[in-house]
């Protein structure tokens, strides 16, 4: 499936995330890193070699997708720290808008997930921290 088809699907379905993997479409209306983290809890390599289209990619999402061995990422909005991760691990990506960091939903600070991994460089440590942070937010 071509990138343009996935981008069109994201907009038409009003999804936050869409990917084509193993011959199937996976899309989500969930917010934050949930569309990425939730399937990775069952299979850490869920996105291996996948093409991803996401509305927002911050460092947290970039670390998870890199750990999952993603093939290509297109983000409408991407943070500088996400770009650094993709460049470091030679993950192919493109984007529409680049920002210093992803802001939280109340627009008064950094996204809590991006903040949780701000000073972390190890992908596996980031994965564990993000699972714990997601659980803490849900409780």
Fold and architecture overview:
The protein has 139 residues and is α/β, with parallel strands linked by helices. 40% of the residues lie in helices and 24% in strands. It contains 6 helices and 5 strands. The protein has helices at 3-12, 34-40, 59-67, 80-88, 112-116, 123-138; strands at residues 17-21, 24-28, 51-57, 72-79, 92-99. It has a 5-stranded mixed β-sheet, with helices on both faces. It is globular, with a radius of gyration of 14 Å. The model has no long low-confidence stretch (mean pLDDT 95).
Quaternary organisation of the protein chains? single chain
Number of strands: 5
Strand content: 15-25%
The ordered string of helix (H) and strand (E) elements is HEEHEHEHEHH
The secondary-structure class comes to: alpha/beta
* Cα Rg: 14 Å
Separate helix tally: 6
The whole-number mean of residue pLDDT values reads 95
Distance between the termini: 38 Å
Main beta sheet: 5 strands, mixed
Low-confidence stretches: none
Could you outline the blueprint of secondary structure elements for this entry?
Layout: H1 3-12, E1 17-21, E2 24-28, H2 34-40, E3 51-57, H3 59-67, E4 72-79, H4 80-88, E5 92-99, H5 112-116, H6 123-138
Parallel strand pairs: 3-4, 4-5
Antiparallel strand pairs: 1-2, 1-3
Helix pairs in contact: 3-4, 3-6
Question: Top keywords for this entry?
Answer:
24% strand; 5-stranded mixed β-sheet
Short description:
This protein is of the alpha/beta class and 139 residues long.
């Amino acid at each position: 499936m071509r990138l343009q088809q996935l981008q069109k699907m994201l907009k038409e379905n009003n999804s936050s995330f869409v990917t084509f993997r193993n011959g199937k479409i996976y899309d989500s209306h969930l917010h934050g890193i949930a569309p990425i983290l939730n399937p990775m809890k069952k299979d850490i390599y869920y996105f291996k070699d996948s093409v991803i289209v996401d509305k927002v990619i911050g460092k947290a999402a970039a670390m998870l997708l890199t750990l999952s061995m993603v093939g290509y990422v297109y983000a409408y909005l991407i943070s500088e720290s996400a770009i650094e991760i993709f460049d470091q691990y030679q993950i192919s990506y493109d984007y529409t808008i680049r920002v210093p960091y992803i802001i939280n939903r109340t627009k008064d600070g950094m996204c809590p997930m991006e903040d949780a991994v701000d000073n972390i460089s190890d992908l596996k440590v980031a994965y564990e921290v993000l699972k714990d942070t997601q659980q803490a937010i849900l409780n």
